[in-house]
Amino acid sequence: MVLGDDVELLLPEKAWEFSERTPRIAAAGWLQGAVLRLGKGRVAVFGEAAMFSAQISGSEKRPMGMNHPDASENARFLLNVFHWLSGLLPPSGSSPTT
Q1: How far apart are the first and last CA of the chain?
Q2: Considering only CA atoms, which of 86, 98, 85 is closest in space to residue 34?
Q3: 34-93: per-residue pLDDT in tens?
């Protein structure tokens, strides 16, 4: 999962406190996640664990992770990752073995 040209990384001094002065750096080309085969196994690494959780935050009970309205595909994505790791989903371009 390669981040696009329009992605910025925000570096707040305190978590979740952003302003016009919050330092920002371009994150184009950075990886959000990667999967690979290693020996006889498979590895999946992701840079954001919250996308695989269902949370609410603060006294406002803001939805986060899988609860966020913009994250409607996160649960399906995580299930697909688990299926790929387990071998249930074959490598791209091949058919499942029976």
Answers
A1: 29
A2: 85
A3: 999 999 999 999 988 788 999 998 899 999 989 899 999 999 999 999 999 999 987 665
The position carrying tokens 């302003």 is 19
What tokens does 96 get? 């499942």
Distance CA 54, CA 62 (A): 11
Kindly report the pTM of this predicted structure.
0.70
Q: In the Cβ-directed half-sphere of 22, how many Cα atoms lie within 13 Å? A: 14
Indicate the helix (H) or strand (E) that contains 81.
Answer: helix 74-86
Q: How many CB atoms lie within 10 A of CB 82?
A: 13
User: How far, in Å, CA of 79 to CA of 38, rounded?
Assistant: 20
Provide the pLDDT confidence category of residue 4 given band limits of 50, 70 and 90.
very high
